[in-house]
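User: Second chain of the day. Same drill as before.
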Amino acid sequence: MKMVNKVGAELGVAPTCSAIGLARATYYRRRFPTYGPRRRRTPPPRKLPPVERQQVLDVLHEDRFVDWAPAQVWAQLLDEGKHLCSMRTMHRILSENAESRERRNQLRHPQYEKPQLLATKPNELWSWDITKLLGPQKWTYYYLYVVLDVFSRYVVGWLLAEKEWGGYAKQLMDECCERQGIEPDQLTVHSDRGGPMRSNTLGQLYANLGVTKTHSRPHVSNDNPFSESQFKTLKYRPEFPKRFGSPEHARNCLHDLLDWYNNEHHHSALGWLTPHDVHYGLAEQRLAARAAVLDEAYRAHPERFVHGPPKPPALVRAVWINPPKQDHPEPERHPSALARTPSTAPSAGAVNPAAGAAQRAEQSEAGLLPQALREHARARADEHLTGAAVAPAH
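Assistant: Same format as last time:
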């Protein structure tokens, strides 16, 4: 700060701050600090005094003007030969007294809470959705209902229909719960806010089975990511057709695709295990077999594994929908990194180029600004004046 105050008048504040590594905004903020709230603005001299403002408010409170807009009141008073204030002043007075708002009865959208759901084992959290499939002709579609276990990514049930209907959703969910042996208060089912998902028919089934339901926030696709990702995996398969010729063709194709997804697809989020293995408790057995294969490979050729004995990817034990945010504290530096050794200490008359802005500012204030930096500041000042730097001669 002292160096900028001393040299800034001669070379300019911006070039000097650039030379010593100090932000120009920091310089001005420290030079002109502001403390406490800002000073209130002085009322303009044309503002109506409190007595006249109260008279305007009393007129607006008259029975004949109770449902009138300020512009209508202003025009009526002019026709009666009165002028109390402008229309804008009437609006200001009403706003100061909390009597101005939207006159129309508009819908106010509620604040939806972000769903935060945790699954630590199969059949604890399900996610389901509906996707459109192209039919044989234009404007013809089939609708695929898929119920997915979030922890294992296992498709516990699916249904193909020609429309979206809560009755189909109830039938599918009832069969899935019966097939998986769901007990009351065991399962949470998450979905978006589509019509079948919020139907009373499906809601009554949830209540009878003791299933908890949750919904995504409106227009937030990230609240149902697992179903969206599973649909993308299916539709990107090479054997997935562009259009389905008939409902029977669609059911045959989807049966093969979903069977592949459950029993053959090695999922990256499951440690490259299949959803079937994770859902039915075969994960530990598969991981132990993989570890034995890797150990045998390491014993045969240890020189090929530069990082030591290899280990198979572990299975994630907790799966979240919208995990809570965690504060990541800054890592502590090693004491040796903070200590300044004699060999690395900057000598007098030199500014350490690796130092931070505050340290460089301290060095410059202590009188350590070298002549090279002074020349650099002058060059930067010339650039600001001319608008372009002079190219070096070849």
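The radius of gyration is 36 Å.

User: Great, on to the next one.
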